Amino acid sequence: MLTSGCSEPQLPTGIVYCSEGNPESFNPQLVTSGTTIDATSHQIYNRLIGYSATTKEFESELATRWQVSDDGLSYRFWLRENVTFHDNNHFSPSRYFNADDVLFSFERVINYNHPFHDVSRTGYPYFQSINLSGLVSRIEKVNDFEVVFHLNRSDASFLFNLATDFAVILSAEYGQYLLDNQRAEELDFFAIGTGPYKLHQYVKNDHIRFKPHVSFWGEKVAAEQLVYDITTNSTARLTKLITGDCNVSALPKPAELAVLKQQQDIRVDSSPGLNVAFWAFNTQKPPFDDLRVRQALSHAIDKQKILDLVYNNTAVEATGLLPPASWAYSKIYEPNEYNPQKAKALLDEANVKQLNIDIWAMPVARAYNPNAVKMAELMQEDLAQIGVSTNIISYDWSVFTQKLSEANYDSVLIGWNADNNDPDNFFSPVLSCSALRSNNNYSRWCDNGFDHLLSLASSLTKQPDRKVYFQSAEAIIADRVPIVPIAHAQKMVLHNKSITNLQIRPYGGISFANASQDIVEEQQ
Fold it and tell me: Distance between CA 388 and CA 138 in Å, rounded?
């Protein structure tokens, strides 16, 4: 892990964000973790295109315009000129961004023979879960400022996936420099991008310091610097926000909102979240390979109690993967409703006696689940009512994610924050067979019929036609119960009233590109 520099004792100027944890790397291609995405994607990097939550339209970033062929198999992008990459203590770019950087950024992911493909020890979980390598046949460099993505099949989700927080553009020149000096792994830690901020310093468990990118192609940032104050405890983050040690804070616990109402200088920005918290069963492990057992456990959970005591009514019940904010949402009725008697009957039918299971609970807060351990404790009480005993297991986040990849768990409380507005973003990265191969499918469930529905949905362009297939996919999930959807939570960020233009999007990571700090003088 990057650990350059030493802690500086003085309170930093600029914007200070109380972050909930350490990033796993400084390249969002390598992760699906919200903590890493928040620290990297919109601060350090740009994508070819973005997606506006306000206009519901794609917008220019490093591509100024684009064109899709009539058959949907070719996507042509015209690139922005005179875009400057960051520099650091070891590297200074000698040229502007061009098509070589686009090819480098994506071929690293889809080309198994690329010199940087195996540098990632974690793979490329998002892109592998959507099978990007199977979709893109080749990327053509027409000239320095024009590229064409050629697809094997039409895919209505392709532009949405290029607008995700994972589809960042790296520097090919920096990559070659590191490769020549046998330091390839530094690409993902000593990050170089084209974004509004550049990485200046990282001290694990303490802080990340960003400096403005003075040659940024877009509107220059207003803050003198951006500091992520790494504070894992929610109460400590709240205290720092109130005392002024931080002026923006992540992931408040819903129960803390009552305290904030007494703070005139603190604002709570919230929006309906494109997210879902769920309980995933390891369907490749007995007895969770038995549908009746999964159904029984799903009927044992009182979701309303969870909404009351974990979310403090800042979430709505999930009947499927899609939240009400999605255009493809339709409420699923009788979604494995709370029914302990039915749960007992199903266990009897499966001839399962004295069942003891593990529930793995995330040690960190997430927008979709502010307190997984508390949720597990409530579920433990519910399961005891049907004669099922439980063990709650939690580890430090880095250990937790590593052990999850080994697939030895019984079940896990986890979830998903959408990366774009396309409904497929809730299905393919979470439950597809490709997601299983990338270790992002925590249910370990693979169904070819389910994948076929997703493929049909992606082959169409009209929303009503696509919605039919997405609802069919929801019905399969409700019937086969690889997961139990629990809640869709509001997305909330706390900040001092002096912070303005901080945009809270319903999906994706936080961006400080437009945020500024107004100096408020105290009244005498």
Answer: 52
